[in-house]
Design goal:
heterodimer; A: alpha/beta; abc type-2 transporter like fold; 2 domains; 5 strands; elongated; B: alpha/beta; Rossmann fold; 6-stranded mixed β-sheet
């Protein structure tokens, strides 16, 4: 009976917090609906352009002649590997193939040949499928007589290292972990201070409410920065993620901006909550779906259209996209400016909103 | 109006249907010790929160240190200090780190903060604990540091919302004595408490008793006692056992010539004694304690007689 008394008391306390209960009910609903709908109902078909940089002079003419127009229409030829990478970064092509010098000759001699294929960092699954398709297509186009496909695809990153699925997830994971660490910090920095009464102590001093918010944002951004540094080191040490000096700087900048872009929302949510537990549940309800919607684990391009529109509401989507371009394709400002602009916009608008609404939110 | 530290006119604070503060008005002069009394939920803390700029009133006019709390909140906050029921200190910082942090928010420089912290911590006899984490301290010690924290910026007006709650009698006395000392230094103090004995011992300048969001009694301690005195209580030592047939005279206690008597009309009682030729060896009139009045008001027994006492 005493056990039940303890359990009943805990449940009663929980049920007394309306926001807490509301978000506890909302969270599984959102999670289930989201997980159910982000995956496509029909699988296996991928569409998109194929980028080709051919080092083989006779390859282009041969492809034009031997492949049907429906297939060649989707092919875009580039003059250099960098052009191919730029096209991948800008989303013009889904996969980029690098045809080696001896490609046509090897096929003619029925000799096995390998082509490097770089999948799009935004949708590597599609890239991998299309790489397979390419090897079948070119193998058949080369010789009608061969029974076994002699063209092999070698999946690589832009820097030539072997590609694996982790290369797709790591940039998004970095942004997500940095953002989530800050969210936890905010619940403690604002709601807990309210609970303890120290927030009252700060609010009765002559410091402006805006300065309090900016101070809180600064502390959490620094916290996010430290987390980002840890993530970078772990990725480099244990998962073979490599950075050029430039991409390293971009990565640090994007992690900071990604974190900063979300703090304003976090400040508003936590300032409106009187109990830390409610703040934590609310934050989880926002951040957890975000990590599925934002293409951290599953490419946005493969989600149903409606879900894709929802994905673009979350700043994490832009942070993950920019980080992928920077880390896996090693490209810079020209290909991430839009993501940076959106993140900066999020950051400025939500921080200003947080600064202006803080006093109202925190009052009785 | 300029010589008033606090001016409150027709202040209201409603939370949906709950009238937390319901049309109250009062003034506190500079250098006064003002006590705000009332049961839990009477509206004391909400009033303090509005005066300290932590809550916005539903309506009414509030001026603190000569500034309107809504129009000049920063100026108000420059002149006030708050010691609330919850200790305003960070557990993971030391006493001195806490004091420095809050002092800096008032724009003070570190050496100045240090000097003033030293003065108060030595006065409270806790200077040796300045570098100890707050989490390692007793409740009494925390409250002393909390007081020091509020006083270091040298505020003109100090709000003390139940500062002795949960403290042992010795710590309570220390804090009570210190509050009296602060008043003597010329500071204005607004003090809320349940410990009515403290209010009587501190000889506050003015008391306001709140009930259900309204001020039901206000004035000096003597004015309030006088106002709510229904009957005179006298302690009398006589040469014989007393007995009266008048319902207006009640013998409350009687033993060995000593009697405690409640009388509605003291003159009539004295004439009874003279007529019966009773020799009076000693006579003392007892004032009703603030606690008696407070309990009766809080329980609503004095509702019919409630009338705000004017200064």
């Amino acid at each position: 009976m005493r056990i039940w008394d303890i359990a009943w008391k805990d449940l009663k306390v929980f049920l007394r917090g309306r926001t807490r209960v509301a978000f506890s009910i909302l969270m599984p609903i959102i999670m289930m609906l989201m997980l159910g709908f982000i995956f496509p109902k029909t699988g296996g078909s991928y569409s998109g352009n194929i980028g080709i940089y051919s080092q083989d002079l006779i390859f282009n003419a041969k492809v034009e002649k031997s492949l049907p127009a429906s297939q060649t229409n989707k092919m875009i030829f580039y003059n250099s590997k960098q052009d191919l990478i730029d096209a991948l970064a800008s989303g013009k092509i889904m996969v980029g193939a690098i045809i080696p010098k001896d490609f046509s000759l090897s096929i003619a001699l029925n000799r096995p040949v390998t082509m490097d294929v770089i999948p799009s960092p935004a949708n590597p699954q599609a890239g991998i499928m299309m790489a397979q398709m390419l090897s079948d297509m070119f193998g058949q186009a080369g010789s009608q007589n061969i029974k076994q496909n002699i063209v092999k695809s070698n999946l690589i990153n832009a820097d030539g290292t072997n590609f694996n699925y982790y290369d797709f997830t790591v940039p998004g994971l970095m942004a997500m972990i940095a953002i989530m660490s800050v969210m936890t910090g905010l619940a403690s920095a604002i709601t807990r201070e309210r609970e303890l009464g120290t927030m009252d102590g700060v609010m009765v001093t002559p410091i402006s409410r805006g300065s309090i918010v900016i101070g809180k944002i600064l502390a959490q951004t620094i916290r996010g920065f430290v987390t980002a540094m840890i993530i970078l080191v772990i990725s480099w040490l244990f998962f073979g993620v490599s950075f050029s000096p430039v991409s390293l700087l971009w990565t640090v900048f994007l992690l900071l901006l990604g974190t900063f872009s979300f703090i304003g929302v976090g400040v508003m949510v936590t300032a409106a909550m009187k109990e830390q537990e409610t703040a934590m549940i609310t934050m989880t309800t926002i951040t957890f779906p975000m990590m599925f919607f934002s293409g951290v684990f599953f490419p946005i391009q493969q989600m149903p259209k409606v879900m894709q529109y929802i994905a673009y509401i979350f700043p994490l989507t832009y942070a993950a996209d920019a980080l992928r371009n920077v880390i896996t394709l090693n490209v810079g400002w020209n290909f991430i400016w839009f993501d940076v602009a959106v993140l900066a916009g999020f950051a400025v608008v939500t921080s200003l909103a947080a600064t202006f609404t803080f006093q109202k939110l925190i009052q009785d | 109006m300029e010589d008033k530290a606090i001016v409150v006119k027709n202040l209201k604070k409603y939370f949906k249907d709950v009238k937390a503060v319901d049309d109250i008005s009062f003034e506190v002069g500079y250098g006064q010790l003002f006590a705000l009394l009332g049961q839990n939920g009477a509206g004391k803390s909400t009033t303090i929160r509005i005066l300290t700029n932590l809550a916005v009133p539903t309506s009414g006019y509030v001026e603190v240190a000569g500034y309107n709390v809504l129009k000049n909140p920063t100026e108000v906050r420059k002149n006030i200090g708050l010691v609330a029921e919850k200790v305003i200190l960070y557990n993971d910082l030391t006493a001195m780190e806490n004091i420095k942090f809050f002092g800096r928010l008032y724009g003070m420089k570190d050496p100045e903060i240090y000097d003033r912290a030293e003065k108060f911590l030595k006065l409270f006899d806790i200077w040796d604990f300045k570098d100890i984490l707050i989490s390692k301290m007793s409740t009494g010690m925390k409250q002393k540091i909390n007081l020091a924290r509020a006083l270091v910026p040298d505020p003109k007006i100090i709000f003390l919302d139940e500062p002795t709650l949960g403290l042992d009698p010795v710590s309570t006395k220390h804090i009570r004595d210190f509050i009296v000392q602060l008043r003597e230094e010329g500071r204005t103090i607004v003090y809320t408490t349940h410990v009515l004995h403290d209010v009587e011992l501190m000889n506050v300048d003015k008391v306001a008793i709140m009930r259900k969001g309204k001020i039901v009694a206000m004035g000096t301690l003597n004015e309030i006692r006088k106002h709510f005195k229904k009957a005179e209580i006298v302690e009398i030592e006589t040469d014989r056992t007393l007995s009266f047939n008048d319902p207006k005279i009640k013998i409350l206690e009687q033993e060995d010539g000593y009697a405690k008597v409640e009388v509605e009309d003291l003159n009539q009682f004295m004439s009874y004694l003279t007529k019966a030729n009773i020799k009076v060896r000693s006579f003392k009139s007892l004032e009703p304690s603030l606690e008696d009045i407070y309990v009766e008001i809080s329980e609503g027994k004095l509702d019919a007689e409630i009338e705000t006492v004017k200064e």
